[in-house]
Fold this sequence. Notes:
The chain has helices at residues 5-14, 37-44, 64-70, 142-155, 199-208, 214-224, 264-273, 333-340, 347-355, 375-380, 385-390, 395-401, 405-414, and strands at residues 24-25, 48-53, 58-59, 62-63, 74-80, 98-99, 106-109, 127-131, 160-163, 237-240, 249-250, 293-296, 304-306, 324-328. The protein is of the alpha/beta class. The chain has 2 domains: 5-251 and 409-414, 3-Layer(aba) Sandwich (Rossmann fold); 264-393, no CATH class.
Amino acid sequence: MKFSVLLKVIVLLAGPFTAMHCYTQNQLQVIPGAERFNVYLPLIKGKNVGIFANHTSMVGKTHLVDTLRSLGVTIKVIFGPEHGFRGTAGAGEKVSNYIDAGTGIPVVSLYGAKRWPSAEDVKDVDVLIFDIQDVGVRFYTYISSLEEFMEAAFEYKKPLLLFDRPNPNGHYVDGPVLNKKYRSFVGMQPVPVVYGMTIGEYAMMLTGEKWLSEKANAYVNYFKNVQQPHSDTPFHFLTIQCKQYDHKTRYVLPVKPSPNLPDIQSIYLYPSTCFFEGTVLSEGRGTDKPFQVFGHPDLPNNLYSFTPNPNEGAKNSKHYGKVCYGWNLSGTADEVFSLVNSRIQLKWLLEAYKLFPEKDKFLILPKSGKMEESFFSKLAGNNELWQQIRDGMPEDEIRKSWEPRLSEFKKIRKKYLLYEDFEQP
C-alpha cells in the first residue's frame, strides 16, 4: 500500500486495531475517533474550531460539541448536514441557519441555501473537524457533504480533522458502480451502492484518487510533496482512526443516524429497499418501519398491509392515509442481517414490478419525461437498471452486468483501508 508522508502520519496516529470474529456482535467495545482525546486534543488546544456535526456526533452519552467545550476547546461555528445539526429534519427538508440554544454557537446549514461553507463562515476558524456517523451507502448524503466540506477546507487552506466512526454496512461491497453522467448529491463518485469503507477510509480515497476539485487536489498534492509542513499548519488532513474495529465487526449504532433509519434493521435493508424511493411505491416512510415495509394501494390486497401517515421525520411522502399492500421484511437484527446476506437484494424490487398492474407507471418520471433524468436512475447511478427490470432480466443476470466495474472499484478500495478487511488479500 503506497502512502504519502501525510498518510503515514495518519496511520501512525491511529494506533493498532483488534480483529473481531467474522460477522458477530462486537466482543470488545469499539472506540470511535472522537473518543481518542490523547491523539487530537494537542492539535486543537488554543485553536478556534469549526465543526461539521449532527446528533450522531456523540462521545458516550454527551455530544462532541459539549465535550470539547468542557475540555476548553473554543468552537466558533457548527455546520449541519441533511436532517440538520440536531437530526430532526425530514429527508430533503431544507434547514436554515440559526443559533444553537444549548451552546449559543452559530449553526450554518450546509443542506439548504448552500452546501459549501463560505469564506466568511470560516474566517475566524483555525481548524475544521468533521464527525458524522455514516451508514456506508452511496445515496446516503453524508459522504456527499463530506466531499464538499473537504474541498472547502482545502481551498480555504484550513487544516481538517476527520473523526472516523464504524460502518454498519462495512462488511461487504456490492451494487452498480455510478456512471459519473448520473452524478448528483445522492451519488457523486464512481463507487458502488455499498462501498465497504468507513467515512475516514472514504475520505482518504477522495484525496488519493484525486476525486476532489482541481484546487483542492492541488492543495493535497502540495502537502504530499513537502517533508515538513509550515509550523503554523502541522497537518492539512488527518483521519483519527477507530480502535477495536475492523470490517468483520457487526457494529450497531448507539444513535439512529437519521429519522428514517431508526434501527439496525432499517440500516441493513436500506441499500436494497431505497430504490423504491424512485418508484410510486411507499418505502415505509410515515411508519415505524421505514425501508422495512414497502407497498402500494394498487398491489394485490392479499399481501401485507400498512397505512403510512405523517410523522416528525417524514412530514411529506407517498400514499399518506391510504392502505398499502406489499411486503414486511422486519424481524430481529440477526434475522434481517441473514435476510440481506451481505449483498444488495433486487428480488423485492423485481417482484413488486411484476405484480404492479400498470407497468408504465411503476417508476416516477421527471417533468422532462426522460428516465435518464429520473431519481431512480440517480439512485442506481446508471440508466440501465430500470431497463433491465422492464425487460424482465433475472436478478443474477443484472448482478453480472455490474462486473467488471465492481471488481475495478474493489482494487481501488483496498489501497485506502485502515482496518483489517472482511476478505483475505
